Amino acid sequence: MKTNDELFKNVISHAKEYGFVFPSSEIYDGLSAVYDYGQLGAELKNNIKTYWWKAMVQLNENIVGIDSAIFMHPKIWKASGHVDGFNDPMIDNKDSKKRYRADQLIEDKITRYQKDGKTEKANKLQADLDNALNKDDLGSLKAIIEEHNIVCSISGTKNWTEVRQFNLMFSTQMGAMAEGSDEVYLRPETAQGIFVNFLNVQKTGRMKIPFGIAQIGKAFRNEVIARQFIMRMREFEQMEMQFFVRPGTELEWYNKWKETRLKWHLALKPDQSKYRYHDHVKLAHYANAAVDIEYDFPFGFKEVEGIHSRTDFDLSQHQQFSGKKLQYFDPEVNQNYIPYVIETSIGLDRMFLTTLCNAYEEEDLSTPEKADSRSVLHLHPALAPIKAAIFPLTKKDGLPEKAREIMDALKMDYNLIYEEKDAIGKRYRRQDAIGTPICITVDHQSLQDNTVTIRHRDSMEQERVAIADLERILEGIVGWKSLLKEIL
């Protein structure tokens, strides 16, 4: 039985071996906390984005999507509070010179207490951490670290500096000459691009409250402590939707979106026991309710998606700093007001990792006569990078030509792979490892009666079907419709 650490290492190794995720700039020894998505990773990532976009925009008549710029006017980040308040509490070990996030050091200690069965101690430490974070009490964070004998993982010592705040935004210069250029920021979130376009979308789309604006895009944070593979990166992608509502109705909509978003995750048929809600103990100053949807990764429960009731803070701030009115006239109540906002924000990279962790299995297929096993990704068929693999049983007798004929008929609608190398069993194993839902084998009987053998990934069962029925069968297994019906 593998430990969680061993399992996570195997997921990371599997992701690289099969072309899902590579360390960025690897031939130059890599770049810390930056990753590239390989040929299968790009497909899986695009499928996750498609699922989110279809569920959010296509299925909701009152939600539209935009794509705002990464560079925005620097005053936007002053208005949003990021210039003054987008900080993490950092602490250095004087012996190793290694820098840590103070709250994460304490969270790791809580996890160790829980694993050791010291539940009461873990709960007390969690309460102390929450209290210190609520008060922004950096001195208390250091006192907690010292009290619980938390040591540096490299030096093994407790020779700590004071805890201090570190701003996470990347800045750069915009302009032809360095001395005459303006300082701008790489956006640390995609939400502000939605807020500053609120009136543009509302007026051009003739949108009526309540309505939402969705966006998928890159964001950048100078994470000093980036860890756990693609869980926390410096360059990442977000899928966010800001839902604008009438003041006074925000908590009703907050509860609705809280349920809707968990339903989206569970429609993929994961182990439901690995998901939970975690209400925020410390609310942001602009929020009146906030919850995380957490997933039980091999390294513990961590946030995958957040749902926040942001009140009217964002639009009010941008109205104040820009000098432009960002109000909505509501004909139903015959008044102007600044809408309140419900935010749903999911990290695409975290969702990618959640999907891999959910899907990965090292399956023992041994019998009394023979030892056997396989590594398999039980991806939801709609998310699978390759929808079907097409195999001629042999490389002769007209079988490759027949297989290519089937491939040509289906590849306009589905991402397929053709393979004729190695024994059929080895080909099955390779497709299992990348999550391909079905394999289609063309044999000599196919030339006689236009039938093929379909082999299913999860059950490994096989059935004989007519070539003429393949399109219908594929649509039923890998099509978006069956998945989207789960969330209607």
From TrEMBL:
Reactions catalysed: tRNA(Gly) + glycine + ATP = glycyl-tRNA(Gly) + AMP + diphosphate
Gene Ontology CC annotations of this record: cytoplasm; extracellular exosome; microvesicle
Xref: PROSITE patterns: AA_TRNA_LIGASE_II
Domain Aminoacyl-transfer RNA synthetases class-II family profile: 169-385
UniProt entry keywords in alphabetical sequence: Aminoacyl-tRNA synthetase, ATP-binding, Cytoplasm, Ligase, Nucleotide-binding, Protein biosynthesis
Subcellular locations according to the entry: Cytoplasm
InterPro entries for this protein: aa-tRNA-synt_IIb, aa-tRNA-synth_II, aa-tRNA-synth_II/BPL/LPL, Anticodon-bd, Anticodon-bd_dom_sf, Gly-tRNA_synthase/POLG2, Gly_tRNA_ligase_bac, GlyRS-like_core
GO molecular function terms noted in the UniProt entry: ATP binding; bis(5'-nucleosyl)-tetraphosphatase (asymmetrical) activity; glycine-tRNA ligase activity
Binding site for substrate: 101, 189, 236-240, 343-347
Tagged with keyword Nucleotide-binding: yes
Keyword Cytoplasm: yes
Protein residues bound to ATP: 221-223, 303-304, 347-350
E.C. number: 6.1.1.14
SUPFAM superfamilies with a match to the protein in the record: Class II aaRS ABD-related, Class II aaRS and biotin synthetases
Pfam annotation, one family: HGTP_anticodon
Domain of life: Bacteria
The family this protein is said to belong to: Belongs to the class-II aminoacyl-tRNA synthetase family.
NCBIfam families referenced in this protein's UniProt entry, alphabetically: glyS_dimeric (TIGR00389), PRK04173.1 (NF003211)
Classification via PANTHER family: DNA POLYMERASE SUBUNIT GAMMA-2, MITOCHONDRIAL (PTHR10745:SF8), GLYCYL-TRNA SYNTHETASE/DNA POLYMERASE SUBUNIT GAMMA-2 (PTHR10745)
Subunit structure: Homodimer.
Functional note: Catalyzes the attachment of glycine to tRNA(Gly).
Identification of the protein by name: Glycine--tRNA ligase
